[in-house]
């Protein structure tokens, strides 16, 4: 049957479709179904992923899959974290959000390397309310000025420890898996998805 991808973020949707592709899942996005966007009232990635998947599953009467994710900066005690989308304002200006991260770090007087991680919580909810939850994380460093124009959101300022370029310099396939061994996931989203695939799709 069909699976709803409960996101309104085009960058995320693209990556989730790429990850789902090999599994032959028939997926439709929340945007295509005109589902309303619930307010993200939780204070954890896990809580917001569950909230979004639950809302979509109930509204569509289909299993739904949601992603809540964000950038957590050590020098900012984990901010922007669950507020990563909101730091980009109503207009979703991530150039400005990356600059805001830089100025907040400067205010704290932190010195490089600026340690950070991307975290992703995935939730799958069935119409009967059953839920499965997964998490993935990738550690790295922030790079200023931003590098690369690929990807989305904070990709141009994040360099994973495993590679010598930012996510903004990577195609989605490079962001998902380490070179040489397609089975080693790289991004927070690919790592969470790998756990999901193992539990729900294999
Ligand atoms: P949905 O809730 O509709 O899925 P959203 O953009 O509001 O879309 P989140 O609340 O999870 O999603 O916000 C996460 C933000 O963190 C997102 O807008 C990105 O800017 C950032 N982010 C998450 N994963 C990222 C990635 O792989 N690369 C760059 N930025 C990322």
Provide an overview of this structure.
It is a single chain. With 202 residues, the protein is α/β, with parallel strands linked by helices. It has a single domain, classed as Alpha-Beta Complex (Maf protein). It is 30% helix and 22% strand. It is built from 5 helices and 6 strands. The chain has helices at 10-20, 45-60, 94-107, 172-176, 188-201, and strands at 2-5, 26-29, 64-73, 114-125, 131-142, 158-160. It has a 6-stranded mixed β-sheet with strand order 2-1-3-4-5-6. Helix 1 links the parallel strand 1 and strand 2 (26-29). The longest helix has 16 residues, at 45-60. The protein is globular, with a radius of gyration of 17 Å. The two termini are 16 Å apart. The mean pLDDT is 96.
Brief descriptors of the model:
6-stranded mixed sheet, Maf protein, binds inosine 5'-triphosphate, alpha/beta
Write the layout of secondary structure elements.
Elements: E1 2-5, H1 10-20, E2 26-29, H2 45-60, E3 64-73, H3 94-107, E4 114-125, E5 131-142, E6 158-160, H4 172-176, H5 188-201
Parallel strand pairs: 1-2, 1-3
Antiparallel strand pairs: 3-4, 4-5, 5-6
Bound molecules: inosine 5'-triphosphate.
């Amino acid at each position: 049957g069909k699976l709803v991808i409960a996101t309104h973020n085009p960058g995320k949707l693209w990556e989730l479709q790429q990850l789902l592709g090999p599994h032959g899942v028939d997926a439709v996005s929340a945007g295509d179904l005109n589902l309303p966007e619930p307010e993200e009232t939780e204070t954890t990635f896990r809580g917001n992923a569950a909230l979004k998947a639950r809302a979509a599953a109930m509204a569509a009467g289909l299993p739904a899959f949601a992603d809540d994710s964000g950038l957590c900066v050590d020098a900012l005690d984990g901010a922007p974290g669950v507020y990563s989308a909101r730091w980009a304002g109503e207009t979703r200006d991530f150039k400005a959000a990356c600059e805001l991260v830089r100025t907040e770090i400067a205010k704290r007087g932190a010195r490089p390397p600026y340690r950070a991680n991307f975290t992703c919580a995935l939730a799958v909810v069935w119409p009967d309310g059953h839920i499965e939850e997964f998490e993935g994380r990738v550690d790295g460093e922030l790079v200023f000025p931003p590098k690369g124009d690929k990807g989305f959101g904070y990709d141009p300022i994040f360099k994973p420890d495993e590679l010598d370029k930012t996510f903004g310099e990577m195609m989605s396939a490079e962001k998902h898996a380490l070179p040489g061994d397609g089975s080693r996931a790289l991004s927070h989203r690919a790592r969470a998805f790998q756990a999901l695939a193992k539990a729900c799709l294999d």
